[in-house]
Amino acid sequence: MILLRSSLVLLVIMLLFPGYGWLTPQERQPLVEAFVNEMVTKHGFERNQMMTLMYQARFRKDIISAMERPAESKPWYQYRSIFLTPSRIDGGVKFWRDNEAILTSVSSKYGVPPEIIIAIIGVETKYGQNIGTYKVLDALSTLAFGYPKRASFFRKELTELFFLDREENLLFVNRVGSYAGALGMPQFMPSSYRVYAVDGDSDGVRDLWRSNADVIASVANYFKAHGWRNKEPIARQATVATDPPNSLLDKGAKPSLSLATLARSKVAPEAIPNTPPLDPKTPANLIRLDGDMGYEYWLGFQNFYVITRYNHSNLYAMAVYQLSQRILALNQTAPASKP
Predict the structure, then answer these.
(1) What are the start-end ranges of the H helices in the chain?
(2) Is residue 124 annotated as a catalytic residue, yes or no?
(3) I want to staple 158 with a disulfide (CB 3.0 to 4.6 A). Which of 140, 190, 254, 294 is the partner?
(4) Cβ-count burial of 94 within 10 angstroms (0-12 exposed, 13-18 middle, 19+ buried)?
């Protein structure tokens, strides 16, 4: 009954105050109490401790403003320039060489290439240099009780944060992260941290801030769990005879058109010298990006789709893919640094 009343209070307030991120502390109090009641009665948390933590959380308008202007809203030619930089490419090669043994071991175990693991960490936090400056409890509380468009999602993530705090010995509620509440070098949301984080160095702790072994193994585990296929293609630039119809471009995220089907619309993967042609039965997704000189057309395969499970954006997945290829190429050609 307490849970039902709490949920009804939350629903009524959301309906009456659609912009409730700007409510006063007194007006937000029922939302917080509804959340605390659920955590106490359903999940066994201690009420006084929960109330103390929740009333310490700061509700920040700048977090909601950041949610309204994500980098993924930029055109590709601008988005690409954020991540395909010399410092990220060079930093990726250095990260590879500094962690070569664990990367080799993890890649063999999970079937995920080192350059993909490295590129994720590079795009997310520039190899740990920028893990975020927002207190995670502030971020998730603000979005759970002040961002109606995705309040239910962030309320769930706030719940997962408290589960993490109870299960692990890393004081999660005091950590800093992204404005969306993502954690550590790979920027896992709390729910992903609980499910996919791995103790890569076997020290009994899943630490995605200080243990590169844990970070590397966790990213690989995430990709494997979401269907990564070892040694299969990721993406390939496409040649098109004319602008493809929207019916080919609006097929959703998961590859659903065979290369043979696309060929009938005069869409084909670009040939790569000394590389065998792709099987015509291979499922693909046709992607159109805003390039410097007009549209770019790409084909995304199953592994490209898996990258979008990390961030549901073709721009993000393409940045990870292209950064990974730059890192791979430089790592193969640049001389190793002297000890």
Answers:
(1) 2-16, 25-43, 47-56, 61-67, 76-83, 86-98, 100-110, 114-125, 136-146, 151-167, 190-196, 212-225, 246-249, 259-264, 302-308, 314-333
(2) yes
(3) 140
(4) middle
Higher pLDDT, 301 or 248: 301
pLDDT in tens, 172-219: 888 999 999 999 999 999 999 999 999 999 999 999 999 999 999 999
Buried b (16+ CB within 10 A) or exposed e, 252-264: eeebebebeebee
Question: 74: which 2 tokens?
Answer: 């930029």
Structure tokens at 206: 């899943």
Instruction: List, in sequence order, every residue forming a beta bridge with 117; answer none if it has no partner.
Output: none
pTM (2 d.p.)? 0.90
Q: 27, 72, 100, 124: which is the annotated catalytic residue?
A: 124
What is the rounded CA–CA span in Å between residue 172 and residue 193? 11
Find the helix packing angle between 114-125 and 212-225, rounded to 10°. 110
Strands 134-135, 257-258: pairing kind: unpaired
For the chain, the structural domain boundaries read 2-67+138-171
Q: How far apart are CA 288 and CA 285, in angstroms?
A: 10
Q: Are 151 and 141 in contact (CB under 8 A)?
A: no
Report, as an integer, the average pLDDT of 228-245: 93
pLDDT for the residue numbered 127: 98
Confidence at residue 55, expressed as pLDDT on a 0 to 100 scale? 85
